[in-house]
Amino acid sequence: MSLGVVRSQAIGTSIERRGTRARLRGDTHFAADLNIAGVVTAVVLRSDRPHALIREFDPAAAKSTPGYLGVFTWRDIPGRNRFGIINKDQELLVERKVRCVGDPVALVVAETEEAAQRALSKIRVVYEDLPAVFDPEEALTDAAPRIHEKGNLLGRRVVRRGSPEEALKHSDVVVERTYTTSFVEHAYLEPDAGLAYIDHNDILVVHASTQNPHYDQKDVADLLGLPEDRVRIIQEATGGGFGSKLDLNVQGFVGLAAFLVQRPVRMVYSREEAFLATAKRHPLKIRYKSGANRDGRLTAVDVTIIGDTGAYASYGLAVTSRAAVHATGPYEVPNVSVEAIFAYTNNPMAGAMRGFGVPQMAFAHESQMDLLAAELGLSPLEIRRRNALRIGSQTATGQYLTASVGIGATLDAVASRWEEARVEKQSTRAFVRRGVGIASMIYGIGNTGMQNPSTAQVELGRDGFVTLYSGAADIGQGSSTVLVQIAAEALGLKPDAIRSVIADTAHTTSAGATSASRQTYISGNAVLDAATKLHNVILTEAAMMLKADRGDLELRDGSVFLRSDPGKGVSFKDIAERASRTGLPLKWQGYFDPDTTPLDPETGQGRPYATYAFATHVAEVEVDSLSGEVRVLKVTAAHDVGRAINPLNVQGQIYSGVAMGLGLALMEEFHPGVTESLKDYHIATAADMPAVIPIIVEDPEPTGPFGAKGVGEPALIPTAPAIANAVADALSARVYNLPMNLERVLKAGISVRSAEKEKSCQGY
Amino acid sequence: MRTFEYLKPTSLKEALELLERYGEKAKLVAGGTDVMVLWKKRAISPEYLISLRNVPELNFVAYDGGLKIGAATPLRTIELSPEIREHFPVITDAVSNLGSVQVRNSGTMGGNICNAAPSADSAPPMLVLGAKVAISGPDGERSVPITEFFRGPSKTVVGPREIVTHFSVPRPQPNTGAAYWKHTRRKAMDLPILGVACLISFQDDMKTCSAASIALGVAAPTPMRAYKAEAFLAGKIIDEATLDEAGAIAASEGSPRTTIRGSAWYRTEMIRVLVKRTGMMCRDRAKGAAGR
C-alpha cells in the first residue's frame, strides 16, 4: 500500500470481535428471538418417504383447528416454484413427488406453533411409493429409478494433465487404495430460524439466520413473483452455518407465508428438523492411485471420485469441481487424471460444508502420501517436503504459482514438534499405542473458476464518522471485525471509530456468499478499494483546505495533519461539512473480483482461483488397541494465511477447525432417519478436544488486502487426515473409511494385536 | 399449548395420595431429565405431573457401613458424597459420568433406575452391590432385590400406585473392590455403548476371589448380571488370565443388539475387554481399601 497513511496498526491486531460482549451477556438477538406484535407461526409438513408420488392431499380436517390460518401447497406459490443456488432443482413445496425423507409437502400457518402442529397432524397425504436408490453408483445405472427428469447424473468434472497412464507404468512405486467418507451434519449451534412481514412500504422483509442474504433475496423474490427490490433480507446474528445456511432453509417458507396470510410469520427449526431438512456433507468414494519414483517425487495420480448429492443439487456441482481440482493436494504432480462424478440419490440433500469436498479429498491424498513414504523408506515429513508446491510450480490445472505459496513454510513450522513427538511416543500400557501423523492441504480461496465479486461502500458522514457498508454475512467467524480493521487501516482510524452496516439488502450491496473462505480476501479487497477511494478524496479536500501538498499530508485518528507541521490539520468532520456544502460525494464503492479463468470442460485446465491457502497439521494420538478408542492428545496446526488481519480470530478458526476435524475423523456419521438429533449424532465435546497449538505463517499474497488470504475452511481440512495418519502410525494398520469409529479402529488393530499376543504382551 | 398440572407434594404421604387420586392421568417426575424428553416428543401426555423434588423422605444419603440413597436424590449429590466416593466408588464411577453437570444436578438415581433403560448407568453398580429397592404404596412398604426389579425395557415391578423411595446397599464384605466402566463414543455427554460393573471380594491373601459379581448394561433388554462368569471367578486367583476367561464367559452371557450406538459384535467384544479391566480395577481398589 502506498497510501499516505500513518499505520493505525489496525492490521495484525487481535481486537475484540464485534458483537462478542453482547453475545456473552445474552443480549444478542438471533432470528428465533425476534417477536413482533401479531406474529403467527409456520410449520412444514414433510415427507416420511424417500421417493413417492403424492396421490391424495386432504387438508380438510386441519381447517377446524383453533388458530388455523391456512394450509398451502405448491399451487399457492405465486412465482416460480424452483430454487437452488446453482441448479434450480428444488421445489419450495413439492408438486408431484417427494424425492427424500423430509421433502416439504405443505406449509401450515396458525396463530401459535402448537396450533400449527395440531393442524399439521390432521392433514392426510396418500403416497404411492416409488422404487428408491441410496447408492450413487447404483443411481447411475440404467435400471435405477429416475429421481429428476433430466436423469440422476448431477455433474462430472475432469482434470487431465500430461500422460498419467504412461507415467504410472514407469513409476518405481504405485499405491492404489479406495477411501470412503460419510454424510456429516453441520450441527451449527443455532438451528435455522426466520421472521417475515410486509412493511409500510409494501416490501416483504425477511429476517433470517443466513450466510447469503443477497442470494436469498433473489430466490425469495422469484418464488413469490416479485421484483427483487420488493424483498428485503436482513441477516440476524447467526450462530454458525458451516455452509448449510447458504441454502434457502426457512427464508422461502416465512416469505411465502407472510405474503399469503398478510401477517408477520415466524419459523424456528427444532434441532430434529434442522437435522432432517438441511444439507449434509457429501459422502465421497475415492479410488486413488499414486505413483512415485525412488527420488521421492510424485510422478502421477489417477483418481476417481463418486459423490452422493442426495435428492437435490444444492452446492453439489461446486463440490464436484473443487474435489477434482484439489485431488492432488499441495504437491507438484506432472501427470494427472481425475474424474469426479456426482449423482442424485434418494438420500437427504448434500451441499456446502466447510471445505466443499476438500476435507474428504485430503483424507485420501494424505493417506496416499504416507503409504508412498513407507514404500520409499522416507519419513512422512520428508516426502511432503520433496513434493510441496513452491513459487514457479504448476498446479494440476496448469496454473503457475507466483507468490504466497506457504506450504513449505508450514511444513517447516511443524517440523520440530513432529520430530519431538515421534521420539516421545512411548506408552505406559502395552495395549495403548501412541502415534504421530502429519497432513497438509491446499485450498483455493473463492469460487472455482468463476466470477465471484464482492462490493462494499465506505462513507464519511457529516458528523465525521466513517461507516462501512458490507453485504458479507458474519456468521460468527468474525468477518465484520476483519473488514472494519481493513477499512481502519486504509483511513488511519482506530477500528472502534468505524461504524458498520452489515448484510441488510436494503442498505448493502452484494458481497457474495460467506463461503469458500472468501470474505477476508475478496470482500476485504472490496472494502480496501472503497476505503482507498475515500482516502484519496479526503486527501484532496484536506490539501485544498490546508493549502498544502498532498504528499505532505497524513491521516490519523479522524484528522488530516501536515507532516511538516504536525500542529496543523483539519478534521474529517470539517472535511465532511465542506463536502456536503459543495456536493462532493463521500460514499464510495469498492469492488473486487479475483482473477480466475473458467476450467476447460474437457481437461479441467485453467486458473480456478487467484490465490491459495496452505496448512500442515501434526496430530498426536493414543489408540486403545483393545477397544478402538482414539484419544487425540495434541494438534499442532500451521497455517499460511498470507497475513493475519486479526491473529486471535485466526487462532479461533484453527481451534474450531480442529474440533470439527476431530469429529469428522472419529465420530461424525449421519444416517438418514436414524441419527435424529445430537443424542445419537456425536460431535466432539470439550472433553474430546486435544491441546491445540496454532502457528500462524504469513507468506503475504500480493493481491490480498494487506497480504491476507483466508483460513475458515483450511483450519478444518488437515485435521482428519493427520489423525488418520497418526492412528495408522500407532496401529501399523490403516483405516480407509471416515469416521474412524470404534469398530473400524478395533478391526484395523486386531491383526496387530494378534501379533503382539505372540510376544506375550499382556495388558488390560 | 399442551399443558399439565404440576403438583408439588411435600411428603411421601401426600405424593402417594395424589398418585392414588389421579391414577393413570398422573406421571411421577423427579429431575425431569427423562420425563420431559418424552413429553416433548409427545410420547406421553399426562394431565398431572407429580413432582418428587420437595419430598424430604426421598432426598438423602445415609451411610452407616451400609448405604441408603433416597430415590429423588440428585445424581450430583451422590457424585459429590465423600462417603460414597470412599466406600462405594463404583457408584461414583457411574454417576459422575452421566450426562452433564446440569443434567446431574437435576436427574436422580430413582429416575435413572425407574426409567429402566438398558443403558442406565446407575443400574450395574446397584446390581453388583446387591442393592434392594424400597417401594411404598397404599398397602405399605415393600423391598425388592434390584436383580428382580427390571421387567424389560422401560418396565419395572413398580405398580401404578407405588413410589420408589430409596435404595439400600448392604455393607460390603471385607477386602472388596468394585468398579464401573462406561464405554462411550466420546469422552462426555453420552449414553454408554456398554456399561460394565464388577465387584470382587478377596480372601485374606488378597489374591483369591471369595465372591464376585458382574453386571452389564446395554448387553440385554435390561441391565443384567453375568452369573456364570461370577461363578467361574469364585475361588480363583484373580489375575489377567483368569479375568480374560471370565470376560469371555460374560460375553457369552450377554445378548446385545446392533443399534446406532454400537454393533452387537463390538459390544460382545467389549464385554470381554471391560470385564477384565473392571476386574483389575477391583483388585487394585480392594488392595487400596485394605491398605487404609
Question: How would you describe the overall organization of this protein?
Answer:
The complex is a heterodimer of chains A (764) and B (292). Chain A contains 17 helices and 28 strands. Chain A has 764 residues and is α+β, with helices and mostly antiparallel strands. Chain A folds into 4 domains: 5-28 and 453-592, Aldehyde Oxidoreductase, domain 4 (2-Layer Sandwich); 34-130 and 187-277, Aldehyde oxidase/xanthine dehydrogenase, a/b hammerhead (Aldehyde Oxidoreductase, domain 3), CATH 3.90.1170; 132-186 and 279-387, 2-Layer Sandwich (Aldehyde Oxidoreductase, domain 4), CATH 3.30.365.10; 408-431 and 611-764, Aldehyde Oxidoreductase, domain 4, CATH 3.30.365.10. In chain A, the strands form 7 sheets. Chain A has a 7-stranded mixed sheet, with helices on both faces. A 5-stranded mixed sheet of chain A has the order 7-17-16-15-8. In chain A, strands 18-26-27-28 form a 4-stranded mixed sheet, sandwiched between helices. The longest helix of chain A has 28 residues, at 519-546. In chain B, the strands form 4 sheets. In chain B, strands 4-5-10-6-7 form a 5-stranded antiparallel sheet. Chain B has a 4-stranded antiparallel sheet with strand order 11-12-13-14. The termini of chain B are far apart. The radius of gyration of chain B is 19 Å and the shape is globular. In chain B, helix 9 packs antiparallel against helix 10 and helix 10 packs across helix 11 (264-291). Chain B has helices spanning 12-22, 35-40, 75-80, 82-87, 89-95, 101-106, 109-114, 123-128, 227-233, 240-253, 264-291, and strands spanning 5-7, 26-29, 48-51, 61-63, 67-70, 132-137, 140-145, 150-152, 155-156, 163-169, 176-183, 194-202, 209-217, 224-225. In chain B, a hairpin with a 2-residue loop joins strand 6 and strand 7 (140-145). Chain A binds chain B through residues 112, 114, 626-628, 631, 667, 671, 674-675, 679-680, 682, 684-688, 741-743, 746, 762-764, and chain B through 1-2, 183, 185-191, 193, 240, 243, 260-263, 266, 269-270, 273-274, 276-277, 280.
